[in-house]
Design a protein that fits this description.
The complex is a heterodimer.
Chain A: H1 5-22, H2 28-43, H3 52-55, E1 56-61, E2 64-69, E3 82-83, E4 89-99, E5 102-113, E6 122-127, E7 141-145, E8 152-153, H4 159-178
Helix pairs in contact in A: 2-4
Chain B: H1 7-16, H2 18-24, H3 40-54, H4 58-67, H5 74-82
Helix pairs in contact in B: 3-5
């Protein structure tokens, strides 16, 4: 039974393909607007203001649109991050493909770095652009909890659904711990 | 019809008039001095970071993508887009 783990992981990766195919987005521009609006909405509640319109950047190449916020790799606080009330900092990159009237999710990376001294030190939600050769250790959609090489499978989430988990699941718990 | 709103106004529009926000859809454009695209300096800086992260040059990254042996990593997709090689994704 334990020997079947690689096969089961491959089947799971196959289900990600189906899940991705079922997700429909009107356009990359709409995804950018959704993400910006979501962050603007959150920002209105924060004591330390971010400027989501300025922080979220878009780059287009051929059929692929990249929507980014913050540095590519988190190496410490920058003024390009989005800061939450808990003082956690968020950075992300989302890649969308628009082709022949269809808009689909290619990849994403949402990195939430917690304030110094808090454990775990970070959460990251990744969607890889294609299946990995070893889906057991690297499922296409996965999350990390403070460990770069431990990737636990997650459902394929839309960018806004990832933000829901960051702002409405993780952040409230951090605030309870930080400001009991 | 054009609405010219502050960022705070946009947040209030989303909160108090979700139906209208839905009607507006993706037609929201930020007006700011630096726009909403990466500057050439920001692009170069990100490319340099990615070269360091993956320990290869951008030319090697493109060669890997052409050969179909690139890492399955969201950062690699971002890298190809920054290099204006979205056709290789």
């Amino acid at each position: 039974m334990p020997g079947g783990a690689p096969t089961r992981a491959k089947i799971l990766d196959g289900r990600y393909e189906e899940a991705l195919a079922s997700l429909g987005f009107p356009s990359a521009r709409d995804v950018t607007a959704q993400v910006r609006t979501y962050l603007q909405h959150q920002d209105a509640e924060l004591s330390r203001k971010n400027n989501a319109l300025r922080l979220v950047k878009q780059t287009v190449s051929q059929e692929i649109t990249s929507i980014t916020l913050g540095p590519t790799i988190d190496k410490g606080p920058t003024d390009q991050h989005f800061y939450l009330e808990s003082e956690s900092r968020l950075s992300f990159g989302i890649e969308i493909r628009e082709t022949q009237g269809r808009c689909s999710l290619v990849a994403y990376r949402f990195h939430l770095c917690l304030p110094d001294g808090m454990s775990p030190s970070f959460y990251r939600f990744d969607l890889n652009p294609q299946a990995h050769g070893s889906p057991l250790t690297e499922p296409r959609a996965h999350y990390h909890v403070a460990m770069e090489h431990i990737r636990l499978p997650s459902p394929v989430l839309t960018p806004v659904e990832v933000l829901d988990r960051i702002f409405q699941v993780i952040e409230p718990q951090l605030l309870e711990i930080r400001y009991p | 019809m054009i609405l010219w709103l502050s960022s705070y106004g946009l947040a209030n529009l989303s909160r108090f008039a979700p139906n209208f926000r839905s009607f507006v859809g993706g037609s929201i454009f930020p007006l700011s001095p630096d726009g909403s695209t990466l500057t050439p300096e920001e692009r170069a800086s990100r490319i340099a970071e990615l070269e360091g992260q993956f320990r290869m040059t951008s030319e090697q990254a493109i060669a890997q993508a052409v050969a179909g042996i690139q890492p399955s990593d969201p950062l690699f997709v971002e890298w190809l887009v920054l290099l204006d090689r979205g056709d290789l994704v």
